[in-house]
Amino acid sequence: MDSVVFNAPGKSVTLDTAGYTLVGTGTTLTVEAGTLILTNNKKGDNSIHIEQPGRNETAAPAIEVTGGKLIVNGDLTAEGGFAGSDVRQPAIKATGGELELNGNLNLKGGLTLLEDAKLNTPLTRGVFWAANGESQTYRIDLRGNNASKPANHPDLESILETGYIFVQSGEDGTPITDTDGNYDFYPPDGVSIGGNTTIVAHTHSYHSLTNSVAGRYHACDCGKSAEHTFENGVCSVCRYACPHSGASLNTETGNYECSACGMTMVVKSEKDGATTYYSILGTALAGLRTARLLRC
């Protein structure tokens, strides 16, 4: 069939695939304006199949959204064309408009979101993949450049529902785990994924760090980091104890406060060239060579 270009400003149209696979020259389905709703009302089957069979110079995305809105009401299987040199075109590429993907996803060539494109339905499932010989294909691509950087999706976490994360998988979407059953995560703050991936449920479990940013951040094994939430000098999440290595005068209260956790300090101590602040006088005096009272 010929490629389908939907450009109907202000209109909403439903396309029932009726169990057929949409195959076209060039980009198989392009949405430019208006709302296009894809369904499959064939009894017992809600799957929607869209392929772009082009190779090399005729390769293109299976679905491209530049404006308007595309709503997919069903399980979507889509395949972009093979462009050669280990690259497959995206199954879905959006540079504008909106996407609502209401079902499972099997995207050979993956998902690319750039510029003003917006994914209205955070992802909770799907497999984003390419064959072994297509190593230069991005399974998820939010990179862009100065002109095309995504306005609505700055990182991988921004296209996922809360409580989910991308992990390495096989081509069939089976998660890859180590001998202990642990997933191989893709960091939530990343902007692209170059290997096959699927989505699993995940709850962040933060632990304290030992590097140069330990005083400000804790991290999850998935790569997600977050700032400490201090209560009385101790992080309520990871139990990191603030060392109170810096303090400054709060001119409104007249108190010296820890620069990291905000706790009121009463003593400044100097020992072996190191400066430490304390909130309790007795703790400060124990074993310290020099101490200066900050307030009475």
Describe the model.
- By secondary structure, this protein is an all-beta fold.
- Helix content is 2%, strand content 40%.
- The chain is built from one helix and 30 strands.
- It has one helix spanning 281-285, and strands at 4-16, 21-23, 29-39, 47-51, 63-65, 69-72, 75-79, 82-84, 87-88, 92-94, 98-101, 105-108, 111-113, 118-119, 127-129, 140-141, 164-168, 192-193, 197-201, 206-208, 217-220, 225-227, 230-231, 234-235, 247-249, 256-258, 264-265, 267-271, 274-278, 290-293.
- Strands 1, 3, 5, 6, 10, 11, 13, 14, 16 and 18 form a ten-stranded mixed β-sheet that branches.
- The longest helix is centred in the last third of the chain and has 5 residues, at 281-285.
- The mean pLDDT is 90.
Which terms would index this structure?
296 residues; mainly beta; ten-stranded mixed beta sheet; seven-stranded mixed beta sheet; 1 helix; 30 strands; 40% strand
How far apart lie the N and C ends? Answer: 84 Å
Shape field: elongated
Instruction: Please count the helical segments.
Output: 1
The whole-angstrom Rg is 26 Å
The averaged pLDDT comes out at 90
Structural class: mainly beta
